[in-house]
Amino acid sequence: MAKLARFIAPAGLVLLVAGGIGYNIRPDLKAWMGSLLLLGAILILAGVYRSFGEIMAWLNRRSTITGLNVAMMTTLMLLIIGLVEVISAKHNTRFDLTEGKRYTLSDQARKVVTRLAKDVQVTAFFRADQAERRPAEDLLRQYADLSPRFRFEVVDPDRNPGRAKRYGITTYGATVLETKDKEEKITEVDEEHLTNGLVRLLREGKQTIYFLKGHGENELEDGSRNGYRQAKEAIEKANYQVKDLLLLREREVPRDASMLIISGPKRDLAELELQAMQAFVERGGKLLIQLDPFTAPSLKTFVGRYGIKIGDDVIVDQNARVMGGDYLMPVVSTYYPHAITRDFTLASLFPFARSVDVAEPSPQGVTVQKLGETGPGSWAETDKGELNRGQLSFKKGQDRPGPVPIGVVATAQVKPVTTPGPEAGKAAATAQGANEGQTQKQPGMARLVVYGNSAFAGNNFLNFSGNRDLFLNSISWLAEDEEMISIRPREAKSTPIILSAMQGRMAFWLLVVVVPALFLVSGTSVVLGRRRSR
Prior knowledge:
Layout: H1 2-5, H2 8-25, H3 30-50, H4 52-59, H5 62-90, H6 107-114, E1 120-125, H7 133-146, E2 150-155, H8 161-167, E3 175-178, E4 183-186, H9 191-202, E5 207-212, H10 229-237, E6 240-245, H11 247-250, E7 257-263, H12 271-282, E8 286-290, H13 297-304, E9 308-310, E10 314-317, E11 331-335, E12 348-349, E13 356-358, E14 366-374, E15 378-381, H14 384-389, E16 400-401, E17 405-413, E18 418-419, H15 431-436, E19 439-440, E20 445-451, H16 467-478, H17 501-533
Parallel strand pairs: 1-2, 5-6, 5-7, 7-8, 8-20
Antiparallel strand pairs: 1-3, 3-4, 9-13, 10-15, 11-12, 11-14, 14-17, 15-16, 17-20, 18-19
């Protein structure tokens, strides 16, 4: 009986485990499983009562006390580590030490996410073994850390075909962004696609941007170095609708135009077109004018009404060679405080540009401000003959010394617009009654941005340093989308280590031969030393 009593406690433990497993597998047998659990507990208590003296003697041993202390310290350490992990999961800080800051979100992404006014659910569809899954999940986690309104989930479409079918997912990597009343899909999970997808998801409708044509302007569908195809794609990615406008045929800027862009006209505009543009500005329209040297003199007169002075010159910059250009590619690295250039530290390159300055005094109701200018080693060349001969030299009193402004922004107050009221259309109304039936719209502000060059946003130069951001920031400001004004995501820079033949051999011998040999010699000496000490 004494031998059988020693197995009471182990038998009770077996019954406890079996009852717990059985209850999870067959919850319908709750009564039987409960009986097993109760019997197991009784057997364990009986075993403890019978062996109480032995248990107390074992607990009073020095080795037992030491073991329990170690177990308690280990348990305490694990609890501390778990607590730290729980806290760090909700409150974490990242340090990006890479050269291109590839793991740091851009200002634009941070602005969009931190200002979320609606809850956004993001569902990314990746296979469990897909290489792109981990980077996408890491990026989504960075967005989620910025706002509690941003939540995400990564789903395997092969294991969850129902959810994939619900969203119409047919390719791996597709991602769905949704609010309660709207849904947006993106094909790639990178910062640019994700941020632009959020903007499209949260924006009500699309603003329409018109590009003037018919005067030799830069073509939107032209993929050559001077075309504007990349500029058009960049604008459309920012959720704007882009259209051409032949003003000679339309006779007025369409009412749905958020802004009108005039990019590098080679020929002058007709008087009817200028009148249509004037009417557009007077009703609070927005204009982006990019005027190359010695072209479209009527536009020079047109912007002069708003305190903008365009020079008949070409900017020469001796420091442009540092950036890989020539003397006729001035570099702009000095910017004036404005929403377009806020926190702007990137240089911009303007190939073959003219000066654009603020006229004094400014017209009444118009505020004019410089955006950027070239460095002190530049000047505005006014002698066209020297340009044609390629003999460029600064002439004091004739040429304008640097720094030379190259971009100007203007805001003009719009006069109140009188529109007929509901009583004005009645045939029996008197003249006085008709006047009383009229209403006045509150005055607004027209906006103009003028640059002395159009090629800086062409296919060949759009992605150079700060050109892309300056161009898109100008559009965002004109469209009154200030939250989109920021430095956009940069492509991750790859910094390979290139070794010469000698450096390669040295690295091989040091890492493959010398270091392992040192460890081998050190280990051998320790072993031999211990043997001798014996």
